Amino acid sequence: MTDAAEFRRHSQDALARGNLDLAVAYLQTALRQDPADRESYHTLGRLLRLAGRGDSAAAWYKACLHRYPDDSVARMGLAALGQGPAPDRLPDDVVLYIFDRNAKVYETNMEGLAYRIPETLTPMLAAEKGTARGDLDILDLGCGSGWCGPLLRPFARRLVGLDLSPAMLDLARAKNAYDELVEGEILGALQGGRLGTFDAIVAANVVLYFGKLEPLAEAITKSLKPSGAFVFDVEKGATDRAEFHSAGRFTHGRQLLERVFAPPLYARSRIQETVMRTEAGRPVHALCCVATAPAA
Ligand SMILES: C[S@@+](CC[C@H](N)C(=O)[O-])C[C@H]1O[C@@H](n2cnc3c(N)ncnc32)[C@H](O)[C@@H]1O
């Protein structure tokens, strides 16, 4: 008898051929075969949510929660559809669900979406800290596959990468750009103070997984040396609040950044707008920011 995993593989093939309806049908068959196949609930929810079929997506997330009441991937899926409370930040197991399993295809996927945030943030770092002289202690927060590593290396005396995902860290290690790679959660690691202090902290495409910016802003300024720079991007929001949207990311508005990255935590912030990447063929707008810690 064909098992659920086999139907999931057929579903992936159908998706690769651009046939969403067939992919969905295979996943439904997988669940008829094995109603406990959690992976199929997750994938059905995600595919339908990203295709704009929110009601169907929500039904599958609810079915998943009926069987697995603590399932945070389903909970976050419903929250992204506006049918549940938005978290303060994406939970660790959801971050791993998104990134750890897909690490191998992360860079190819992002190149296909014209992702350019690391290349945008590096000149902003240079504008703040001067041209690359290899004399800065730099932390790459949510370093992922290490995309920023080779760009930051010329600036760095010490370059540390931090990420939750072991599979992403393996890819970053292969770049040979970092002095140290640390597996850990950003807030926990910074609040624990175990990484030391830095001239610059860079976070490319990471702050969009945080809704509540205040704890992050506070932990980061404490991890910066006097006049140190936090260089990061967010997905541009239309309001002055963080909004959790259907793609499962937060948007943040300019006023919000100006309010959070302000005295007394930060001496000043400078914001510029750019296109982060595309999604379904449309540009995703970003705000890139350099927030400078107070001088000693
Ligand atoms: C979109 S990727 C960006 C990776 C890299 N900075 C880049 O520009 O390609 C986001 C990364 O942030 C990590 N991440 C998200 N939230 C995190 C958290 N709370 N603690 C540690 N890592 C986190 C993910 O594991 C993932 O590798």
Please tell me about this protein's structure.
Strands 1, 2, 3, 4, 5, 6, 7, 8 and 9 form a 9-stranded mixed sheet that branches. The chain is an alpha/beta fold and 296 residues long. Helices cover 44% and strands 22% of the residues. The chain contains 13 helices and 9 strands. α1 (4-16) runs antiparallel to α2. The chain has helices at residues 4-16, 20-33, 38-50, 54-67, 72-80, 92-99, 103-112, 117-129, 149-152, 166-173, 186-192, 214-222, 254-260; strands spanning 136-141, 156-163, 180-183, 198-203, 224-236, 243-244, 250-252, 268-279, 282-292. The structure holds S-adenosylmethionine. S-adenosylmethionine binds at residues 89-90, 95, 99, 117-118, 142-144, 147-148, 163-165, 168, 185-186, 204-206, 209.
Short description:
The protein is an alpha/beta fold and 296 residues long.
What layout of secondary structure does this protein have?
Layout: H1 4-16, H2 20-33, H3 38-50, H4 54-67, H5 72-80, H6 92-99, H7 103-112, H8 117-129, E1 136-141, H9 149-152, E2 156-163, H10 166-173, E3 180-183, H11 186-192, E4 198-203, H12 214-222, E5 224-236, E6 243-244, E7 250-252, H13 254-260, E8 268-279, E9 282-292
Parallel strand pairs: 1-2, 1-4, 2-3, 4-5, 5-7
Antiparallel strand pairs: 5-9, 6-7, 8-9
Helix pairs in contact: 1-2, 2-3, 3-4, 4-5, 11-12
Bound molecules: S-adenosylmethionine.
